[in-house]
Amino acid sequence: MRKLVYFVASTLDGFIAAPDGSFDFLPLTPDLAPHLVAEWPQTLPTFAHAQLGIDSPPAGRFDTVLMGRGSYEPGLKMGVTSPYAHLEQYVFSRSLPPADYPDVNVVAGDPVAFVRELKTQPGRDIWLCGGGQLA
After folding, report:
1. 98 vs 118: CA distance, rounded Å
2. Would you say residue 135 has pLDDT above 60?
3. Are 102 and 86 within 8 A, CB to CB?
4. How many other CB atoms sit within 10 Å of the CB of residue 125?
5. Which candidate among 2, 14, 19, 115 keeps its CA 20 to 30 Å from the CA of 132?
């Protein structure tokens, strides 16, 4: 059975975002980037692969990414509608119209039931990206 893995950057006291939802206070330090490229390349956005020297699609632990609207929206603001095109992408949202976001799978239903079903399907592990509420 596939595993659901929560993999995020956080502060020592467990915050993944500022009170306003921003995350620019979590810097990508010079020693962190090479580690992510070597060990977790599939967790880096597809648009950064060429710049970072990552083969596409990158090998790794995950073949699927789950995110909420709050994790998906920063990319949208940059014009990126498919941040992890090298993975099967699911965005949990009750307010995003699926037809408007064809590059990802928008899931409006119960996330728990969806993940339970997804875990029974063949494949590699499932990355839970970000956190927050279903919007």
Report:
1. 19
2. no
3. no
4. 16
5. 2
Q: What is the CATH number of domain 4-129?
A: 3.40.430.10
Residue 62 forms beta bridges with which residues?
125
- The whole-number average pLDDT for the span 8-32 is 72
CA distance 98 to 75: 17
CB 130 within 8 A of CB 63: no
- Tens of pLDDT along 26-75? 677 788 888 888 888 999 999 989 988 888 788 889 999 999 998 898 88
